[in-house]
Design a protein that fits this description.
The complex is a heterodimer. Chain A is α+β, with helices and mostly antiparallel strands. Chain A folds into two domains: 11-140, D-3-phosphoglycerate dehydrogenase, domain 3 (60s Ribosomal Protein L30, Chain: A, 2-Layer Sandwich); 145-220, Alpha-Beta Plaits (2-Layer Sandwich), CATH 3.30.70.260. Helices cover 29% and strands 33% of the residues of chain A. Chain A has six helices and eleven strands. In chain A, strands 3-2-4-5-6-7 form a six-stranded mixed β-sheet. In chain A, α1 runs parallel beside α3. Chain A is globular, with a radius of gyration of 17 Å. The model of chain A has no long low-confidence stretch (mean pLDDT 89). Chain B is mostly helical. Chain B has one domain. Helix content of chain B is 65%, strand content 1%. Chain B has helices spanning 5-15, 19-31, 35-56, 70-80, 87-104, 120-132, 136-156, 161-164, 166-184, 189-201, 219-238, 247-259, 277-287, and one strand spanning 108-110. Chain B starts with a helix and ends with a helix. Chains A and B meet through β1, α1 and α2 of A and α2, α3, α5, β1 and α7 of B.
Chain lengths: 220, 290
């Protein structure tokens, strides 16, 4: 069944006006920030199709930037996110694209600071649910029906075991898992779908596991 | 897990418990959490709904200026006039519209089941409250009852306008509210199901045609329609009127209608009211020509 919890129906608590164009957009921005691990200094956000056509009226721009600032869907600072970004020295540029893509609500986010950059493509599939379909050139396949953890790690033996042993210790079941790497011994990506939302304390434990570079969770 | 309304009603009748109680027990099993934990999470949602209604009655305006102020207008009218549709119905309409005005103005709401249809459940709750004088627990239970029915629709059909039109959004939201009103008023689980069916039946075919693609026109007033229909259907069910077509079959009909609805009428802002001369003009004013 697609929907498991009563709180999928009565919820989420969110800043309006649209679960797909606002709450979903905030979750895409937040996923990008969490994967980057800190607040970036600049962001280039490419918007496609419905996001491109209606982003201003829906506050999609504020929500994406709010997410990059670390705001969740119910954070009322969202309304002033563009202003707060200026104060916090986050330089944002929106690029409206006319290219057709697979999903109407798609955003490609490139963020960075003096030392690092990250590129991610997120889609908002409705009701506040999002999917991340590409990360730093890695294609991802996330159903969006379950919470997921994305982990950038060094391609070394033991990296996967260090993550799965933490999950096993907390009795968290893995529904789907994928591992990709760019080259032997280089940066690699683990995508793990689980049956329940992961608490922040477990996330911190994972962050400190061996060979882990970055980590982000996606709430279904 | 219950998959249909028939199953939900059967479980409630067999165990001699309310629909809200079936939903609470299922959630406790799913999350492996205590009753108190589940209850307090729903209480948080209730507080957000209450605040949105209060904020809207202070008067509010959306960023585009398309919506805002109607909740207050209706309250003023109720205070100064002998109304035709009566205080409870109009109060629900005002509070449902108010919630969606807050939503359009980027305020905080609880999606029930979506942001665009977030007015029906709280609007009716805070209106019938005046008459039914529920306890705090009954008010939280109202949300579990509504959620139980929404859960079935979401898993057997759809709850988003992009997928199934407004019938899936405000249709579901109004129907969920009907079922919850019946339980709060002391009706049986089967009467909740009948009320749900009667509201959804009268929302079948409703398209999602937002002007400029924004959750404002006609969404705010569709929530007025959904909440008033919710109260009328609840009264019908409590009077003993039954739905000739069983609830699950009504949900099935809604699903099939949504599947055959053209994409121009499913939240793309391309058809229906969005494609009227005034709708197009408003879009031009907001976004400019491109």
């Amino acid at each position: 069944m697609k929907f498991q919890s009563v709180f999928d129906i009565i919820g989420p608590v969110m800043v309006g006006p649209s679960s797909s164009h606002t709450a979903g957009a905030a979750r895409i921005g937040l996923a990008a920030r969490n994967l980057f691990g800190r607040q970036p200094k600049w962001a280039k956000i490419h918007l496609y199709e419905s996001f491109a056509k209606t982003y201003q009226g829906h506050g999609t721009d504020m929500a994406l930037v709010g997410g990059l600032l670390g705001f969740d869907t119910d954070d009322e600072r969202m309304k002033n996110a563009l202003q707060i970004a200026k104060t916090n020295r986050l330089k944002v540029e929106f690029i409206v694209e006319s290219a057709r893509v697979d999903h109407p609500n798609t955003a490609r986010i490139i963020i960075g600071d003096d030392t690092d950059t990250l590129e991610m493509i997120g889609v908002s599939i409705g009701g506040g649910k999002v999917e991340i379909i590409e990360l730093n050139g890695f294609a991802l396949r996330l159903s969006g029906n379950h919470p997921a953890i994305l982990i950038m790690h060094n391609d070394r033996y033991g990296a996967i075991a260090s993550v799965t042993s933490v999950l096993a210790k907390h009795q968290i079941n893995i529904g789907h898992m994928e591992v990709n790497r760019k080259d032997i011994g280089k940066e690699a990506l683990m995508v793990i779908e689980v049956d329940e939302n992961i608490s922040d304390s477990i996330l911190n434990e994972l962050r400190n596991a061996a060979h882990i570079i970055r980590i982000s969770k996606i709430v279904s | 897990m219950f998959r249909s309304v028939a199953e939900l009603v059967k479980i409630a009748e067999k165990k001699n418990i309310s629909i809200s109680e079936v939903m609470i027990q299922q959630e406790m099993d799913l999350k492996n959490q205590s009753r108190e934990e589940i209850f307090s999470q729903m209480e948080k949602n209730l507080r957000v709904m209450e605040r949105a209604v209060e904020d809207s009655l202070q008067g509010i305006q959306s960023v585009t200026g398309l919506t805002g102020g109607d909740a207050v207008r209706v309250q003023q009218y109720m205070k100064n006039n002998q109304t035709l549709s009566g205080p409870i119905l109009l109060d629900a309409v005002s509070k449902a519209m108010g919630t969606n005005e807050v939503n359009a103005a980027m305020g905080l709401v609880c999606a029930t089941p979506t942001a665009g249809s977030a007015g029906c459940v709280p609007g009716t709750l805070f209106a019938v409250k005046e008459q039914l004088k529920p306890t705090h627990e009954q008010m939280v239970r109202y949300l579990f009852t509504a959620g139980a029915f929404g859960f079935i629709v979401a898993n057997n059909a759809f709850i988003s306008g992009a997928a199934g039109g407004c019938q899936a959004e405000v249709g579901s939201a109004g129907a969920m509210a009907s079922a919850a009103i019946v339980e709060m008023a002391g009706g049986t689980p089967q009467q909740s199901a009948d009320a749900f069916a009667m509201t959804l039946k009268n929302m079948l075919g409703l398209v999602c045609d937002p002007v400029a693609g924004l959750v404002e026109v006609p969404c705010v007033k569709r929530n007025a329609a959904g909440s008033s229909l919710a109260i009328v259907s609840a009264d019908l069910a409590l009077a003993g009127v039954k739905s000739r077509i069983p609830c699950d079959e009504v949900i099935g009909a809604m699903y099939r209608i949504g599947q055959t609805m053209p994409s121009t009428l499913r939240e793309t802002g391309e058809g229906g009211l969005a494609d009227t001369p005034t709708g197009r003009l408003l879009k031009e004013k907001i976004f400019g020509t491109n």
